[in-house]
Each structure stands twice: as C-alpha cells, then as structure tokens.
Amino acid sequence: MEQYISEALVKAGIDLATLTFKGTTTLVNSKIKSLKDERNTEKLRNTYDEIINELLSEREQAIRIAQVYKEEYERVNIGDEDIEYLHKTLVQVISLLSSFSVMEDEKQDSMTQLVALLNKDTLKTMQLLGFNYKEAIGEPLTEVCSNAIREKLGGVKNRQHKKSSR
Fold first, then answer.
1. What is the CA radius of gyration of the chain?
2. pTM
C-alpha cells in the first residue's frame, strides 16, 4: 500500500471486506425459508424484526464506509472550477513572487513552466493517474513563498538595523 493512504481508509477497506463476506443475504434467505411452516405469530414477528434490524445495521455500516471513501476522495480531488481558479491565482502569485526579488532567467523560466503545467487538462490527467498535486505543488509553493517573504523581510531588517546603528 501507498504511504499516504490514511488509517481511516485502511479501516474502511477492512470494514467493507467484512461486510461483503458476512453473507447476510444467505442468512436472511435461510431464516425466511425456515419460517415458511412457522405458525407462531410472535416468533415470526421477532424473526422478521431481527432480519430487518440486521439489514438496517448493515445499511448504516455501508453508509459510514461510503462516507469515509467520499471524504478521502474529496481530500485529494479538485473540481474544474477550482482548477481554473487555481491557475489564475497562481499566475498572479508567481508574478508577485518574482517581483519580490530579482530572479535569474533560469528561475523565471521555471516559474513560467510551473504556471503552464498547472492548467485544467494537465491537472485533471495527473489527478486521474493518482498524482497528489496538493503535496507535490502546494508544499513547494508554500516554501517558495515563505522563503521570498523571509528574504524580503531579512533585507528590510538589515537596512533598518544599519540605519539605527548610525
């Protein structure tokens, strides 16, 4: 298994396998067949109540498992509108970051390539292939932004320190 698969997802898979192999359908059918000749209405009612409660319990468990999978999917998936918004915003962010410091042509080209990479078709294709863009792109962008801010603030602090020591 991949390292990034959450414990909740693994547990949901185990629960789903357990639910699948439980054999409720076979159990329900055998109980119903055994009741065909039963004349005691109280026993019939209790058995049917037991069957219904078991089916409702399994339904609730299946819904919980589906919700875990849905949450995991939503954690790594991004919609088309979000991708388009992301692309527009990143163009602005990269432009802003490049204005903070003088970048070499090589770094500027890398930033431009990054923006070109972050288009709707590319992101959707990569996502379908299992690419986790939030970790691969989001974390490095956070670091670049953080470093640019520190560099800018570091230059400002150094200039202020020189002025105050005069």
1. 29
2. 0.54
